[in-house]
């Protein structure tokens, strides 16, 4: 009587095995753990990290290997690199690739793309497939759902064989099935766009965090957006932020543009304040002049500008 059930479950297991991947995550920190919770729904997960996360991994249902040799001897179909941008090169130089199967798929999820792409092409054996990706969300922004969140990928090197193409598609399917907005673009294009959006977002989040934004009983919608921005970026490590700056060649230009924009806004504000001050000094002769003048002086005293130099006053007055 139990036969039909056994047969069904046998078929189900075979189906799961044929559609599931054995995925090894290297770097089981903040982002590695976050990804693994979703990967686990359809795939078998293994992990390795500098820190020993054995208990935590065990709790999640991930097999943890303290030694990368042991991990690679399990012959995963896919190896996902989720380590800090800064440690990538040193790590790649130490990994025992010879223990993996010859046609393993290597994936990275780093927030910069040209850098890992070039390192993969330099250090990985030529038989390995390479998929560079950037899930453009994290434990905060993707806490409840990944639906509609952008996932950028570049199939840098995928062999022609059907099995290799399918394996890569199966991996991409994880994000597609979660409803991510799938964006295929080159690593170079990604870095250009990301410097103007992601790096600027992180910078503003960090500036506002240092500034010390606090919630108040009369928060406006705009202010709530700023508070959310700080919340979204403050969980990320400084290593991550520094990596965005160091390893995206467009980041420095964006930082300088931000600096210039801030200076320009300040100039607009203080420039207008000077005009008011001058008008009151030379153009307005009603009895309120003294009062307004002292108000302008007070405001100028609080800002970074001092009173206009005497030369200017003379020129304007002549
Ligand atoms: P992270 O600070 O960028 O990286 C932490 C991870 O790197 C940990 O697994 C850590 O291992 C490992 N690591 C750091 N230094 C190492 C070293 N010298 N040798 C070996 N491993 C080292 O923070 P993260 O948020 O977990 O990000 C991981 C990767 O995902 C980064 O490349 C990041 O750009 C990318 N990413 C992050 C997000 C996000 O929202 N957080 C989103 C998209 C992509 P241990 O924990 O074992 O020390």
TrEMBL record:
Database matches in PANTHER family:
AROGENATE DEHYDROGENASE 2, CHLOROPLASTIC (PTHR43207:SF4), AROGENATE DEHYDROGENASE-RELATED (PTHR43207)
Which segments constitute the Prephenate/arogenate dehydrogenase domain? 21-296
Extract the InterPro entries matched here: Arogenate_DH_2 (IPR012070), NAD(P)-bd_dom_sf (IPR036291), PDH_N (IPR046826), Prephen_DH (IPR003099), TYRAAT1/2 (IPR045011), TYRAAT2_C (IPR059064)
State what protein this is by name: Prephenate/arogenate dehydrogenase domain-containing protein
Cross-referenced PROSITE patterns, in alphabetical order?
Answer: PDH_ADH
- Name a GO molecular-function annotation: arogenate dehydrogenase (NADP+) activity
Q: Which UniProt keywords apply?
A: Oxidoreductase
State the signal peptide span. Answer: none
Q: What is the lineage of its organism?
A: Eukaryota, Viridiplantae, Streptophyta, Embryophyta, Tracheophyta
Family matches, as Gene3D superfamilies? NAD(P)-binding Rossmann-like Domain (3.40.50.720)
Q: Which Pfam families match?
A: PDH_N, TYRAAT1_C
TM stretches of this protein? none
One GO biological process term is: tyrosine biosynthetic process
């Amino acid at each position: 009587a139990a036969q039909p059930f056994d047969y069904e479950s046998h078929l189900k297991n075979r189906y799961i095995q044929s559609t599931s991947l054995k995925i090894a995550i290297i770097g089981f920190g903040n982002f590695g753990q976050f990804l693994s919770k979703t990967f686990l729904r359809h795939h078998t997960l293994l992990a390795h990290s500098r820190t020993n996360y054995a208990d935590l991994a065990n709790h999640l249902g991930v097999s943890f290997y303290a030694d990368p040799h042991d991990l690679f001897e399990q012959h995963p179909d896919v190896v996902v690199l989720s380590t800090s941008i800064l440690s990538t090169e040193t790590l790649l130089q130490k990994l025992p690739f010879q223990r993996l199967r010859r046609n393993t798929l290597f994936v990275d999820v780093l927030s910069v793309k040209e850098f890992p792409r070039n390192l993969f092409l330099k250090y990985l054996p030529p038989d390995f497939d390479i998929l560079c990706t950037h899930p453009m969300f994290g434990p905060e922004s993707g806490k409840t759902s990944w639906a509609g969140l952008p996932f950028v990928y570049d199939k840098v090197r995928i062999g022609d064989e059907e099995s290799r193409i399918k394996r890569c598609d199966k991996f991409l399917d994880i994000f597609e099935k979660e409803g991510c907005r799938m964006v295929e673009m080159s690593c170079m294009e990604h870095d250009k766009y990301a410097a103007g959006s992601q790096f600027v977002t992180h910078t503003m989040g960090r500036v506002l965090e240092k500034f010390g934004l606090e919630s108040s009983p009369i928060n406006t919608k705009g202010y709530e957006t700023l508070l959310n921005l700080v919340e979204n970026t403050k969980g990320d490590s400084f290593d991550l932020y520094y990596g965005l700056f160091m390893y995206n060649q467009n980041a420095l230009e964006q930082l300088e543009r931000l600096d210039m924009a801030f200076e320009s806004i300040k100039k607009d504000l203080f420039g207008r304040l000077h005009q008011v001050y001058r008008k009151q000094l030379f153009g307005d002769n009603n009895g309120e002049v003294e009062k307004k003048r002292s108000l302008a002086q007070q405001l100028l005293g609080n800002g970074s500008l001092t009173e206009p130099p005497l030369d200017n006053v003379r020129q304007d007055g002549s």
